[in-house]
Design a protein that fits this description.
A hairpin with a 3-residue loop joins strand 1 (4-8) and strand 2 (12-17). The chain has helices spanning 33-42, 70-81, 162-169, 182-186, and strands at residues 4-8, 12-17, 51-52, 61-67, 86-94, 101-111, 116-120, 128-142, 146-155, 195-203, 210-214. It has one domain: Pseudouridine synthase (2-Layer Sandwich). Helix content is 15%, strand content 37%. The model has no long low-confidence stretch (mean pLDDT 94). The radius of gyration is 18 Å and the shape is globular. By secondary structure, it is of the alpha+beta class. The protein contains four helices and eleven strands.
Length: 227
Amino acid sequence: MKLNIIYEDKHVLCLVKPQGVPSQSDKTNDDDMMSEALKYLSGKEAKPYLGLIQRLDRPVGGVMVYAKNEFANKELSRQVQMRQTRKEYLAVVCGRPENETAVLEDYLKKLRTINMSKVTTADDRQGKAAKLEYEVLGSIETEEYGVLSLLKIKLYTGRHHQIRVQLSNAGIPIWGDNKYNKVFVKKKEFTLPALWSHKFGFRHPKTKEYTEFMSVPSSFPFTLFNI
């Protein structure tokens, strides 16, 4: 796998993960981003270090950031835990939201046996608070799928399948989502959800300056919009 490297210094490595590639090794034994990045660093360093700062679900593509030493890993992980990083996604959803901007706040419960999550109630002990904010960037009428809308999403929490579950629950499921979009669940052909890690921002562990990396998707249905 040829890595798409956005940025690299002594502390940080920023890559673009293709859709369908695991963030790290799993039971499928397919090529994964973590292993490929370590191979890349092994060609430059005797004992490379790599810390995964934010994990993307396998179907999701876009910006991923890694720490190249323990110091950077500790500092960036602290920022993630304190919600001091900025996570922004792009998604194409089926339908047109009623509001141009909205904040969605739910409680999500992970269903481990089927690798899905669902919206639950605040008094559910297994439920975890989930929050995101979206803005509609544009809508278009298509012959096959009806109205599709492009959303910019700011993620405040990092729950399992959070964006996919919350948007589906709000009545605007993501195009191509075979788990949470009823239209695509019924379809026989395999599709990847139109969800992309667009921006990731943080304070550089060494310089403390705010740093932001961006990636723009080039696959359908994102290509229907002027991004």
